[in-house]
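Show me any protein, keeping tokens residue-aligned.
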Amino acid sequence: MLQVYTNLSDYVIPFLGLIAASSLIFYKANFAPVFGKIYQFVQNRGLAENQNLNSELVKINLLRILLGLILFHRTFYIAYYQFYLDATSSSFYLSLTVLLCAGCVIIGFLTPVATTFLLLFNIPIDNMMKTVTLGTDVLQMMIMVFCLLPAGTHLSLDSRLRKRAYIGPVIRSLYQCFGVPTLEKIAILKLLLILTYGSLCIYSVTMHFDDIAWLSGNANLLVVTSSYLGKHYPFFREWSQASPEIAVIASKFSIYGMMVWELFLIPLLLWNRITRNVAIFWGLVFFVVSTFILQLGWLSYYEFVLWGLLFWQCHGLNPKANTCFKLIYDDKCNLCDKTLYFIQKVDLFGVIKETPLSVNQEILSKYGISRENAYQDLYGIDPQGRIFKGYSLYLELTKRVLLLHPLFPILYLGKFYIGPFLYRLIANNRIRVFGSCSVPSVKSTSNNEGDGLRAKAEIRDNQWLLKAFLPVFLICILSYFVRMPIVQQLIGYKPANYSAPIRKAMNEFGMNVINVFNYHDLHLNNSFFTVSRYDGSHWSLLPFTGKEGERLKWHQSDRMYFANSLLWRRSNLDGHNYCDLTELDTNSLSELIKLDTNLNHLDKQKLKYRVDYYYQPLPTIHTQKNYSVEFHKINHHCTIYVEPQRLAVLKKTVHA
């Protein structure tokens, strides 16, 4: 337990110490002019186009829910597999704590407390469990935003609890400790997010400068054809052999483009609209490839949320608040009333302005709509004055209301005869079938869930946490730059040595050492082993690694992926020392056997296991004269039979 406390405090104490010192130093400082200038800069760069505060807060909290779901999913599998490995370990209980915080983030219960815990402890917990990834760093950046804003003002249990008589004052006081959410504050946090993620990309690309696969442009070809890193490696292997020239050129184009994107991401995003759109598009393509072609764990899912936080500014958000889509309806009709009630609930961003006929007769003459037609059909008027009615109105609503987007293809196909026919049938008989209502249930709303928190558009100088945070962020990001290997070669090692005491505090911002897709990762496919179980009648392959080195089911948990599989492979890149059952082999194998027996409720005394070791060199890529890609055969080095209780070697066979 002492070790756990030490591991956690190594990160938290320096970070909190810096925040406390900054808070004391700048407690009376007037940061309002600084905040205002940063906001103006971000706005001029086109990164603060949504001027509807309520809409922006709803968007951020919708992304909060999405991020919470991703974190919950990831942590669930970590905790699930850790339970079967050792349900009494501190790692299991820490993963349950993170799981609980993720649940609180999803439902929006005590959200500032949950995000603060994650900001402080998520990185050290992941490090202690050996499950820390690049995705963890990206997650940490967004947790920083959700904590400082704070998130939870909308689409949350907290937004309902603050209205209650007894617990409401507690919830309101909790949120006010973190400062008032404002447009300026959101813009400042966006800039911090861009600087942090951009710095991580710069660190990454400087490490690529020392890798021959990146400099030659072949890295992406090696990744997509790797059975360990590529989801569709058989297809890409066949394609690269059938069309080697195209495969090599595509690899070079994508890898050099990626290096430019990583190196210049910050200036590209801040220069002008064209460069920003190019950078956003390249990032989206990279995230899509990472999700559907590569196997990068949860990284790409986090990055989609990151892109949403930064660049989702207009579509479906009603960014100017005064450009609503007017929906004219008969508020004396039960069906219309229920339809509008549903639309009101799914219209999170206030895109639709309900306009009941009983109190808005003048709007009919303004737009040339007859009274009879208005009571016969629903009418909609967009900000440009275009009029929609009937079935075409519903189709338009599915394009404008975010949560109705999934219905658009269905209604679009239905517009060919069957849709308008059904609509007309229901519209002509709505009063007779559904009746009329004397008291409409639809009330005009503005979705101002955050009003109780005084969510004003102007920033105040009472943002004590943001004031304390900004100087610490500046110190950490400068220290992060001077600690980059390429910068140390240019300016020397003294600045990096001075920043050593706050190295782990930088990790709390997501500023971490990053060395991915270089030599070690590109050679992960070289060495692997499979484990099979014999139950007295037949052999069964454990769902850990396949016979071509591909990942199987157990890799869905980062506990088995990073703390077992990846750890072993990175230590056995060259294929030497096979069949000796080193300490690393024993640790990895004992976990796999323990997981297998506990998951399947097996008796170890009746089992034995077979471990097969394999080695496959990287493919040979020829670019001189004739292009060609040559994949080498998998060498089956040896087989070891072990007794599961003591991991005693029963038999060893070395293959020629």
